[in-house]
Design brief:
The protein has one domain (about 5-360): Beta Polymerase, domain 2. The chain is about 55% helix and about 5% strand. It has 16 helices and seven strands. Helix 10 (about 230-245) packs across helix 12 (about 265-275).
């Protein structure tokens, strides 16, 4: 593997930041901005008492990022309360996913996490009720093209994104964590049954620790777009550090992955978090996932792709094969989510029949 970019070295060992020159900081902040990790750098520096050792200009840049992050967290809490009130009218619990879950549950990835939408999980049988009550509270549907509507409602694991008509906040309503058309179909009933209440927030839940890790791994390694892949891998790194402090976690995690048919994305998550971010993973966890390990040739190919695509989307981190790696992983992501005939039809529609870029969904 090539030498790690400066941002990865800082994420692995934040003490690196104390010895950087101004040109180093210029590069680090550009890489962090490309990866949407600037606010995370601030919190790492704060955790390790490094802010006083950072030159004035980059420190000011980090502080402004922190201000932005705090405003973002306040907005997320407000939106979650509004969504919770709407779902309460429908008699459906609010289960938050991904970034909003990290923020509301006060988990390590939360303080540095910026995201553009809020994701929730509801029972498929209650989708109509949830969608209708959200409309009463000001959210409106998007992707009005007839093909996009059918794409989401028949084949995907969510309805078309909804946007609040006044606040412009975006809400993704999921009924599962993988599309209906994917070969692997983890049971969402099991995820909802194991969800945990958020202390001090009646009616708000997040996934259980092992399920939160598995969802994060699945979201990253079943996706086809990796422009924010390092941010998502860093989420996993922080979650594994936090939950892994409980010894039983490492025994439960692989078992739950096999139960939900998610052992392969978990294997990739543990492998690349360990390789790129230095996440400490017990050998026993890898041993428990041995049956999910790809063959030698396939794993070698995946290493070549993921070790490029999971770097910051910045010119200093790219080589002559980076664009090809992103393209191949984009095709892989679509292949994992759709059978061949449907995939071919969908890509043809995107390429030649979509009325506008906004109606082209992936």
């Amino acid at each position: 593997m090539k030498p790690l970019p400066l941002l990865l070295r800082a994420l692995r060992d934040p003490r690196v930041m104390a010895g950087l020159t101004l040109p180093d900081w210029d590069l680090l902040l550009r890489q962090a901005t490309a990866a949407n990790l600037t606010v995370s750098l601030y919190h790492l520096a704060q955790e390790h008492a490094l802010l006083a050792h950072i030159p004035a200009h980059p420190r000011e840049h980090l502080l402004w990022g922190h201000v932005l992050g705090e405003r973002h967290r306040q907005a997320v809490r407000f939106e979650a309360a509004a969504i919770g009130a709407a779902l309460a009218d429908a008699g459906v619990p609010l289960i938050l996913l991904k970034g909003a879950a990290y923020v509301l549950a006060d988990l390590p990835p939360g303080p540095g996490r910026l995201f553009s939408d809020i994701d929730i999980l509801v029972p498929k049988a209650r989708l109509d009720d949830v969608e209708n009550v959200l409309k009463l509270y000001g959210w409106a549907g998007s992707h009005l093209d007839a093909y996009d509507q059918r794409y989401y409602r028949q084949w995907m694991h969510e309805i078309p994104p909804m946007q609040h008509m006044q606040r412009q906040s975006v809400l993704d309503v999921h009924h599962a964590i993988l599309p209906e058309t994917a070969a692997v179909r983890p049971d969402p009933d099991k995820l909802r049954a194991a969800a945990c209440a958020v202390p001090g927030m009646p009616g708000v839940q997040v996934l259980a620790p092992v399920d939160m890790v598995l969802h994060s791994a699945t979201h990253l390694f079943y996706d086809g777009e990796f422009d924010k892949g390092l941010r998502d891998l860093f989420d996993l790194h922080r979650l594994l550090q936090h939950f892994g402090a409980t010894p039983a976690f490492w025994d439960i995690l692989p078992r739950r992955a096999h139960e939900l048919e998610l052992a392969r994305p978990l294997f990739y998550a543990l492998r690349y978090a360990s390789l790129l971010l230095g996440t400490v993973v017990p050998d026993s966890a890898f041993h428990a996932l041995e049956s999910a390990r790809p063959g030698r040739l396939l794993l070698g190919a995946m290493d070549q792709l993921f070790e490029r695509a999971l770097l910051p989307a910045h010119a200093s981190c790219a080589d002559s094969f980076t664009a090809s790696a992103h393209f191949l992983l984009y095709m892989r992501g679509n292949w994992l989510r759709m059978p061949p005939v449907l995939l071919a039809r969908h890509l043809f529609h995107k390429a030649f029949l979509s009325k506008s870029p906004a109606s082209a969904v992936a």
